[in-house]
Amino acid sequence: MTQTIAIIGLGNMGGGMAANLVKNGYAVRAFDLSEEALSKAQAAGCTRASSAADATTGADAVVTMLPAGKHVEAVYTGEVFGAAKPGALFLDCSTIDVVTARRVIEAAQDQGFAMVDAPVSGGIAAAAGGTLTFMVGGTDAAFARAQPILSAMGKAVIHAGGAGNGQAAKICNNMLLGATMVATCEAFAMAQKLGLDPQTFYDISSVSSGQSWSMTSYCPLPGVGPATPADNDYQGGFAVALMLKDLKLATQAAQSVDASVPMGNAAEALYQALANAGQGGKDFSSIIKMLG
Ligand code: NAD
User: Fold this and answer.
1) 8, 12, 95, 282: which to mutate for ligand 1, most atoms within 8 A of CB?
2) ipTM score of the complex?
3) To pair with 188 at 20 to 30 A between CA atoms, which of 18, 55, 107, 122?
4) Domains plus CATH for the chain?
């Protein structure tokens, strides 16, 4: 029998994810506060719902892709829990703080529902193309149920452990990404000032111990390495504002467990300065302009 999935949050990411659920044969009930987002989802084959509770009614599973923890908590406790059918599975794919993720999952379990946190790596293009990577927190049984649904929207689905561990993996990864991007940009800027040609420095460092994903897959300089947002005046890609959001979540998580993250803190301060300078919409590799 066709499974029915509710998807709540049809923005840059959720819109593409909803379309991929339809393509994979699910009956999809979609809701967003934005009329434009709802119309796009309808054009992609989803059934429009009039509220989060309406979308949830009769659904076997509920997928959420919302901006932050407060939206996720409000949608689940205010609407989804009350409208879901017994035994429904919940999958929150938003990037939110670990503490809220664990609290909402516990509340869902108290009401008899299974739930996973399943944040993603990959941007808008990966959401549209169905090639996201999902890092999933939850019980073995909840993960087993979530896996086929997430596979319809992604290329990799990895079980990170218990509730909240998907969010923990996501923010630790993105803190590492923010710090390595800053370090890569510093090195390119200093190399140039020391008289090194950027391509020559790339040719050396990309096969030496300074190599990283930020250098060889996402080089922050135009014309060096593979095609990246740097070649398109830092448009598209992963916005400074989203990197800053993730670094703030990392700082919050670090404080909650008394972890020392000086590199993460430094990256956060630098991305905050870039956002304050009005560059929040540019790709995060554009921080090289501030450091150059
Ligand atoms: P977005 O702002 O484009 O979309 C969020 C959508 O949620 C909006 O359409 C908004 O109207 C809707 N919304 C807000 N409150 C709602 C409510 N109460 N009920 C129904 N709909 C509601 O954001 P996005 O870029 O799609 O990101 C979504 C999540 O994915 C965020 O947590 C973000 O950090 C994460 N993420 C984004 C990217 C990216 O590249 N954009 C990459 C990885 C992870």
Assistant:
1) 12
2) 0.99
3) 122
4) 4-162 (3.40.50.720), 168-291 (1.10.1040.10)
